[in-house]
Amino acid sequence: MKEDELRKKREEEEEEERKSKEKEEQLRKKKEEEELRQRKEKEEEERKKREEEELKRQEQEQQEKIRKEQELAEQQRKSREQERELRRQNLPAEPQGPNTFTIAFKTPNGRVIRKFLDTDTVQTVKEFADAMVVDSSYKSINDYNLVTSFPRKVLNDLSLTLTDAGLSTQTAIIIEEVFLDEETK
């Protein structure tokens, strides 16, 4: 009987030891799982942080690009205004007397009237328009056309005198913006 008791006791001890090992193994697995979960959470947080930093960097780059574009546009506008001011200063005085043409320039912003000599060229009229009539939203002298109102005629040949261009002594000229599709025609 003693042997049975000893054997039974040993079996119980072995069972307890087996259960203890199983419990330790379960605890070890839980600990590993928890460590793995925490590591994944940390990696996910780091990934999100990197993404946020990248988005912030891209946004800053975009804002910087926009700021530089705005600065460039403002510099170009100021440069155009300075060029126009130089043209204004270099314009000859308005002629008086006979052999003059009175031209009324019509723009979206209003109307400007000026006299020119009959020997002045369309180029002279265009230079006046660029200096005095056309606002700085046009980037260059090529961004608009001079167009007679009736009969409608685009004044393309800048070398013609006003008489040779067929203008009357009292003429209305419309400042008409040139659109891309018109330039390609």
Keywords for this structure?
185 residues, 3 helices, rod-shaped
Structure description:
The protein is an alpha+beta fold and 185 residues long. Helix content is 57%, strand content 18%. It is built from three helices and five strands. A five-stranded mixed beta sheet has the order 2-1-5-3-4, covered by helices on one side. A hairpin with a 2-residue loop joins strand 3 (144-149) and strand 4 (152-154). Helix 1 (2-90) crosses helix 2 (122-133). The protein is rod-shaped.
Oligomeric nature of the chains: single chain
The percent range for strand residues is 15-25%
State the low-pLDDT regions, or none: none
How much helix, percentage-wise, in residues?
55-70%
Backbone CA Rg:
43 Å
Number of helices: 3
Structural class: alpha+beta
Total DSSP E strands: 5
Write down the secondary-structure element order: HEEHEEEH
For the report, how would you describe the main beta sheet? 5 strands, mixed
User: CA-to-CA gap between the ends?
Assistant: 118 Å
Q: What integer is the average pLDDT?
A: 85
Spatial ordering of strands, largest sheet: 2-1-5-3-4
State the shape.
rod-shaped
In short:
A hairpin with a 2-residue loop joins β3 (144-149) and β4 (152-154).
Topology:
Blueprint: H1 2-90, E1 100-107, E2 110-117, H2 122-133, E3 144-149, E4 152-154, E5 170-177, H3 180-183
Parallel strand pairs: 1-5
Antiparallel strand pairs: 1-2, 3-4, 3-5
Helix pairs in contact: 1-2
